[in-house]
């Protein structure tokens, strides 16, 4: 079970590292002001509960994986199914939270007058 936990944590960390690449139209943009605004917008995005969403996904995945494992096999299969479901669900939940963070940053920048291109 610890092996699954470590896989889940690693997957969430990899998901978190891949987010928030934002491209703005730099024409007529004061880049020092943009960098300050970007830092503020990213601080707002930190309010999105990434860990909570990953945990919710892991619990839901574990339940579904355990049930499916029990249906097609025995208690050992159910246990493995729950573990696999927890990893998949945790990664999906963490990914959804990271996507929400990206939306928060982009919306914040748009509201401050920047043309966000992605």
How are the SSEs ordered, and which strands pair?
Layout (H helix, E strand, L loop, with lengths): L1 H16 L13 H15 L4 H23 L2 H37 L7
Helix pairs in contact: 1-4, 2-4, 3-4
Concise synopsis of the structure shown:
This protein is an all-alpha fold and 118 residues long. 77% of the residues lie in helices and 0% in strands. Helix 1 packs parallel to helix 4, helix 2 packs antiparallel against helix 4 and helix 3 runs antiparallel to helix 4.
Helix content: over 70%
Q: What is the residue-averaged pLDDT?
A: 76
Provide the low-confidence segments as ranges. Answer: none
In terms of DSSP E residues, the strand content is under 5%
Shape: rod-shaped
How large is the radius of gyration? 19 Å
What separation lies between the terminal Cα atoms? 39 Å
Instruction: State the major sheet.
Output: none
Computed structural class: mainly alpha
Please tally the β strands and state the result.
Answer: 0
Order of helices and strands: HHHH
With helices defined by DSSP (H or I, 4 residues minimum), what is the helix count? 4
Summed up, the domain count is 1
Defining traits:
118 residues; mainly alpha; 4 helices; rod-shaped
Task: Please explain how this structure is put together.
This protein has 118 residues and is mainly alpha-helical. It is 77% helix and 0% strand. The chain is built from four helices and no strands. The chain has helices at residues 2-17, 31-45, 50-72, 75-111. The protein is rod-shaped and about 65 Å long. The model has no long low-confidence stretch (mean pLDDT 76).
